[in-house]
Specification:
heterodimer; A: about 350 residues; four-stranded mixed β-sheet; elongated; B: alpha/beta; Rossmann fold; Alpha-Beta Plaits; 2 domains; six-stranded mixed β-sheet; four-stranded antiparallel β-sheet
Chain lengths: ~350, ~300
């Protein structure tokens, strides 16, 4: 094994990353724009509120207090009222899931419409019915959670960073190596004393360096805007993200072990990336999802990266407390790297 | 007797039922330029890539310095492929330096730059250089490790005549420095200009081998006399020499050009616009296969 050869390949890949201005800019801009979007447009809150259509209304913007709707229903948080001129207009939106619930304003009986298949519609129906019960008859005792509340954006931020890492690892390694194989760059390198292990290691190290560099820059930029709260250690968080980038990069290397079809590779990368994005709790929690879905999510390294990062960031966990997640990520890394190195071909 | 630098014995490369290389054998002595000449699809590139260790052979033996190739073979050889893309977003100079780092023993940077005439483009990005400049850079990359043996696969393909001639001079310069070169080409000019010995390949086999003069003497005695068809008023059957019709001209093959011309004069054939052509490797290939190299 030659460190000099690995260093040469490491530098060559970094040149490519830093000099490709479009790709370089996008790597920073993409996560930053998503975070900024959530922060500015939704004020850092979860945007999954309920949309209630009302008709007949003169304009789309409706002041609920000026309607005859039950006061307790109007005061319910996370409800957004949207006005429609007619029933037909409102039903059209309801059928296409653009609103969750539709109410007639001029009906003394409180006539409403909803889609039987819509969970959100069902919930709004219950809220509406509860709003009709006179004050004081509600049951239960309200107890608020004490202490610092975690904003949605604090919960989401590690997910966005990890998602960016995943895309960057899979495409920045997997896709690039396949392209290099197709256009003969790998064949040219095969004609030198460079070994497959040296080449793959250099690619992995370069990608991890670039991922961590991007992570730090995006973190600093986003933190200046939103002041993220990190309950645990920054160093522990950095180490966890490094494990994550290692495991995700190794998946990219495994996918790039063979093949010269960029189209097939792109499809395969999407096939892996999209389920990982939805089943690893980047955007939403899987609490309450079917057991098999939650079990499946446990084999995805992104799940463990996010679990560990959120434990450190939101709950102040130490590296020891997230050691099981780190071990899974290392296991995935080892499996993919060994298999990738065994299957690797320079020109097939 | 000196051990040849490279010895290829009964080399076969099969893809499914197709024999891309079908039992070729040859030896290459130190300091010579050996050419594999043949039309596209003859198996030249496949043969070369098997010898280079890029693809595995189906069967056969390749001896380097009298022994099977060792893991250090790649330290000893320089390769220029027919189709290669260079690393993106790197300058010519950085590319040379990067490749230097891949070898234990390397050629001096200045030597490569001078011999391949790269000085004025050292700071240019790889994707901004012309085809001829890219070929010179590829050639420099093949020299980066002070190779004892250099493989050049169709080095001048796609270049304009001026760039080709420029590249040939560079390759000659490399040869004069004592390097051993193996090149493939479908250009008889290139083969004749650069090669000491040539193996003509067709359908995966070597059909003739020798130095250019040897091949011409062996397979094409005499020369050809070419006349416009309308000059030959007499019946073509009366012509005293073998001939073929080609692009409105009569091409007459003869062992002795002078005697052939005398026979034509005796038949009172108009010799205006007559051309006499000494045989070349194209004729050798034509005589051996009945086809032209570029068919």
């Amino acid at each position: 094994m030659s460190w000099q050869r690995m260093w040469a390949m490491f530098k060559a890949r970094n040149y490519e990353f830093f000099r490709d201005k479009a790709a370089f800019g996008w790597n920073f801009l993409f996560p930053f724009l998503i975070i900024a979007g959530f922060g500015i447009i939704f004020g850092g809150r979860d945007y999954s509120g309920f949309k209630v259509g009302v008709f007949p209304a003169a304009a789309e913007k409706v002041v609920a207090a000026e309607t005859n709707l039950p006061q307790r229903f109007i005061e319910t948080k996370h409800l957004e009222f949207i006005g429609f001129k007619s029933l037909e207009e409102g039903l059209e939106k309801l059928r296409h899931h653009k609103i969750d619930f539709l109410l007639r304003l001029d009906s003394p009986a409180g006539e409403y419409w909803l889609l039987d298949s819509s969970p959100k519609g069902y919930i709004v129906e219950r809220l509406f019915q509860a709003g009709l019960i006179p004050e004081g008859e509600a049951q239960g005792e309200r107890v608020e959670v004490q202490g610092t509340q975690i904003r949605y954006i604090d919960w989401l931020f590690p997910g966005i960073l990890a998602m960016n890492m995943m895309f960057s690892s899979l495409w920045g390694v997997g896709y690039i190596i396949v392209r290099y194989r197709k256009n003969g760059v790998l064949k040219r390198l095969k004609a030198t004393p460079l070994t497959a292990f040296e080449y793959l290691t250099a690619q992995a190290l370069s990608r991890i360096f670039l991922l961590m560099f991007t992570l730090v820059v995006v973190w600093i930029g986003a933190d200046l805007l939103f002041s993220f709260r990190v309950a645990g250690s920054y160093l522990d968080l950095f180490i966890v993200f490094a494990f994550g980038s290692l495991s995700l990069t190794s998946i990219g290397l495994l996918l790039a072990a063979r093949g010269i079809s960029e189209e097939f590779t792109s499809g395969a990368l999407n096939f892996i990336a999209w389920p990982m994005m939805f089943l690893s709790e980047v955007w939403f929690s899987l609490e309450g999802a079917p057991q098999w879905v939650r079990t499946f999510s446990q084999i995805l390294p992104l799940t463990h990266l996010l679990k560990a990062a959120r434990k450190i960031m939101n709950d102040g966990a130490s590296l020891m407390e997230v050691s099981s997640e780190c071990l899974v990520m290392l296991g995935v890394t080892l499996f993919c790297l060994v298999l990738g190195a065994l299957l690797f071909s320079w020109n097939e | 007797m000196a051990i040849p630098l490279l010895e290829v014995k009964n080399l076969v490369k099969r893809y499914g039922t197709v024999n891309a290389v079908n039992g070729i054998s040859f030896t290459i002595s130190r300091g010579t330029c050996f050419g594999l000449l043949g039309p596209n699809g003859a198996g030249k590139t496949t043969a070369l890539e098997v010898i280079e260790d890029i693809i595995p052979p189906t069967s056969g033996e390749i001896l380097y310095n009298g022994a099977p190739k060792s893991p250090t073979f790649r330290e000893d050889v320089g390769i220029q492929f027919q189709h290669t893309t260079l690393l993106n977003f790197m300058t010519v100079g950085e590319t040379l330096l990067t490749f230097q780092k891949l070898y234990r023993e390397v050629e001096s940077f200045d030597y490569m730059v001078e011999i391949c005439k790269l000085r004025e483009i050292l700071g240019q990005m790889n994707n901004k250089i012309s085809g001829g400049q890219a070929q010179r850079l590829m050639l420099a990359l093949a020299l980066v490790n002070k190779p004892k043996l250099i493989f050049l696969d169709e080095p001048s393909t796609g270049l304009d005549p001026q760039a080709r001639r420029y590249l040939w001079e560079i390759i000659r310069g490399i040869k004069e420095d004592g390097k051993t070169i193996v090149l493939t080409t479908h250009s008889m000019d290139e083969a004749e200009y650069l090669c000491d010995e040539i193996a003509i390949m067709d359908h995966g086999r070597i059909i003739a081998q020798g130095s250019p003069p040897q091949l011409i003497n062996r397979y094409c005695e005499g020369g050809t006399i070419s006349l416009p068809r309308e000059n030959v008023v007499a019946s073509l059957d009366d012509l005293p020499l073998p001939y073929r019709e080609e692009n409105g001209r009569i091409v007459i093959m003869t062992d002795k050009v002078n005697t052939g011309i005398e026979k034509l004069l005796a038949m009172k054939i108009d010799l205006s616009d007559m051309t006499v052509h000494s045989p070349d490797l194209e004729d050798v290939f034509l005589n051996l296969t009945g086809r032209k190299l570029r068919d």
